[in-house]
Amino acid sequence: MKEDKPLETRINKGFQPFAEKMEKNGLSTMVIDTFREYYTLLVRGETGLLTKADIDPVQRDEIADMEKIAWLKKAGRSAMEKLVVIKLNGGLGTSMGLSRAKTLLKVKNNLTFLDIIARQTLAHRRKFGGNLPVVFMNSFNTEADTRAALSSYRELATEIPLSFLQHKFPKVFQDGLTPAVWPTDPDLEWNPPGHGDIYTALVSSGMLKQLLGAGIRYAFISNSDNLAAVVDETILDYFAQNNFPFMMEVADRSKADSKGGHLARLKNGRLTLREIAQCPESEMEEFQDIFLYKYFNTNTIWVNLLALEELLEAHHNVINLPMIINPKTVDPKDETTPQVYQVETAMGSAISVFEGATAVRVPRKRFAPVKKCQDLLALWSDCYVLTDDYFLIQNPKRKLGALVLKLDTRHYKRIDHLKARFPHGAPSLVDCVSLDVQGDVLFGKGVVIKGKVMIANRTDSQAAIADGTVIEKNLVFS
Q1: At what angle do helices 4-24 and 29-44 cross, to 10 degrees?
Q2: Does the annotation count 371 as an active-site position?
Q3: pLDDT, tens digit, for every residue of 192-234?
Q4: 8 Å CB contact between 246 and 357
């Protein structure tokens, strides 16, 4: 206990400049208190590691399967009248070379992500009746662009505001654990707090109060870049009828997901997420065993808003989600700038906070996020189609499994690079099992790729594939 007093003094003294900086930038007491919890963990040297001694794998009979609960459909249509759709829309897509909201990108049939989300919502209203509200959690960087892009969809408006803002956390210098200072660009002194901020932001913005006041009880929350995450009546009814406080959609892990976070069960019986950063080095092989840890988080969740309100009130509006420490440089584009910690949290990690939280296994078709340019190329292609209800689905003509795409990051990492090398859009990939492009290759119009194909340019100049070329085997330029 004697050792705790100096540490407490150090924490109080060290946090004071953070509190002053956050107050000066208009952040609420709720946000400051939340950040203080994480700063305390940081000073204490908490690692957040979860070892195999702390968790158990989740077995198939422990969670429901979407395809086996279809009999519930239409059993609780009233739940649909109490639903809000919330889209996480704070990302700029910097990993794809973007400086604006990623959802402004055109993804299918000359429509942007935002166009499709708006049209999905309007189609849902036509099908089910009612006035399903859609709400965007934007960042300071995406708010204006998002509202401008959606201004043409006037019928989207309801009594619920169209958006609310996520907060920001101050970056922490690794040396000394003091607030990062960067006078040449003060914006770089801050980082998004991760989508785990949604729970605090719902309260501080007044959105939670407005939703409950309007009779909304359930929230369907997903990433705005995952157009396959749409409201499903079966899942909603299962969630509502069982009165779960929180439910996460999970899918079977594949080799491609082996380094991503997985679902597990804590020794206290609650479900949890374990990210690779939380795994000890000595257990990395087991972490990547997709047959042992079978499920990954799709980052699509269902939340009972009354349960959320009760949880927040019980914890004085501070939900202690597991902390993620992201080591970066203060200017992420310049590795010579000082090293900082970005404190973040993940939305799905709340599964371990809600008593009675559960998960539901969903098919892979509900998971088609765009994190890299190769993901966008897949959606551009004929592997995917939009239904009349603007659902993004795999082309019924495709008889193969999930498309495996790998584009050389030296030439296809940024969106401008992608567009320059696919000036006529994506080649036909409906009959393609996998495509691996190595080197600088320009694709002509009407190119068709079938089977397993590797295209490699070993030369120092750009190679070109002529219009109308059909490729069914490896192609090497040397």
Answers
A1: 140
A2: yes
A3: 999 999 999 999 999 999 999 999 999 999 999 999 999 999 9
A4: yes
Q: What is the CATH number of the domain that holds 473?
A: 2.160.10.10
Whole-structure pTM over 0.85, yes or no?
yes
For 229, the 3-state DSSP assignment is coil
Over residues 338-384, the pLDDT tens digits come to: 999 999 999 999 999 999 999 999 999 999 999 999 999 999 999 99
Between the two ends of the chain, the Cα-to-Cα distance in Å is 70
Residues 6+ apart with CB under 8 A from 461: 440
Residue range 73-125, pLDDT digits in tens:
554 568 999 999 999 999 888 889 888 899 999 999 999 999 999 999 999 99
Domain count, the chain: 2
Secondary element (H or E) of residue 191:
strand 190-191
Alpha-carbon span 406 to 179, nearest angstrom? 39
Q: Of 349, 365, 381, which residue is a domain's last? A: 365
Cα–Cα dist 40/322, whole Å: 13
Under a CB-based contact definition with an 8 Å cutoff, are residues 169 and 266 in contact?
Answer: no
Spatial CA neighbour of 337 closest among 187, 177, 181: 181
Among 52, 328, 371, 452, the one annotated catalytic: 371
- How far, in Å, CA of 343 to CA of 419, rounded? 34
Q: How far apart are CA 476 and CA 478, in angstroms?
A: 6
- Cβ contacts of 390 within 8 Å, gap of 6 or more: 116, 119, 120, 123
Compute the CA torsion angle 244, 247, 252, 254 (nearest 10 deg). -160
pLDDT in tens, 149-177: 999 999 999 999 999 999 999 999 999 99
Q: Which domain holds residue 256?
A: 4-365
